[in-house]
């Protein structure tokens, strides 16, 4: 159960970092009024949007993993308790 809690804290930290980076990275303003600056800013914004989409998928997978780990830890503890009770 402790491992699941640690992983949950890591996931929360990653989610907070991704959320903090979302606005400044997806809304990059062009450095100047020329086409190259506009295209470069658009490239950075597009890349950041793709990253945010992948980060959201990774967060969902991480959450599923933590939930599975918690469920299996509880099942293991229950089985251990049942085995200990039957051994007495």
From TrEMBL:
This is PE family protein. Pfam families: PE. It comes from Mycolicibacillus trivialis. It comes from the Bacteria. SUPFAM superfamilies: PE/PPE dimer-like (SSF140459). InterPro entries: PE-PGRS_N, PPE_sf. Residues 2-83 form the PE domain. Gene3D superfamilies: HP0062-like domain.
